[in-house]
Amino acid sequence: MKKLVIYYSLSGKTRKVAQSMAKQYDADIVAIKEKKRRSTISAYLVGCPQAMGHRKTAIEPLGVNLDEYDEIIIGAPIWAGFPAPAFNSTVAQLPPGKKVSLFFTMGGKSSTKCEAVTKQAVTNKGCTIGGYQSIQC
Length: 137
Ligand SMILES: Cc1cc2nc3c(=O)[nH]c(=O)nc-3n(C[C@H](O)[C@H](O)[C@H](O)COP(=O)(O)O)c2cc1C
What we know:
With 137 residues, the chain is of the alpha/beta class. It has four helices and six strands, in the order E-H-E-H-E-E-H-E-H-E. The longest helix has 13 residues. It is globular.
C-alpha cells in the first residue's frame, strides 16, 4: 500500500500533523503551495470567504503522480468553518477510484457541515473515503 500525505499549511500546525502522519504511515509527503503568497490578513479577508464558498485558489503543481498511490491523505486548516481553499484545488485534481482520507486542523470544534461538504467533494470525484479526522490544535 503506497500512501501519500498532501497538506496545506499557513502557520505550520497542519504541516506538523502531516509530517507525523507521514512518518507513522511510512508515506510520501508533499506540501500544497498557493501560487500567490498568502498573508494572515489575506487569509481572513480573502481566504475565509473563499473557504465558505468552497472555492478553489491557484496552486503550484503538486509535483507527484497521484495515480501511483493506493491511498491519498489530504490535510488542511479550517478557515471560517471550512477547509482553506487550497484544499478544494487539490481535491479537484484527484484521479477517480482512489481511497482518500481527510484531516483538518482547527482552533475550535469540528463541524458536521464541514465533514459533509468535504466528503461529498471527494466522492464527487469518484473516490472513496478512507477516514476523516478533526484535530484541535
Ligand atoms: C483565516 C483563519 C480562519 C480560521 N477559522 C477558524 C474556524 O472557523 N474555526 C476554527 O476552529 N479555527 C479556525 N482557525 C484556526 C486554524 O484552523 C488553526 O489554527 C489551524 O490549525 C491552523 O493551521 P496551519 O498552522 O497549518 O495554518 C482559523 C485560522 C485562520 C488563519
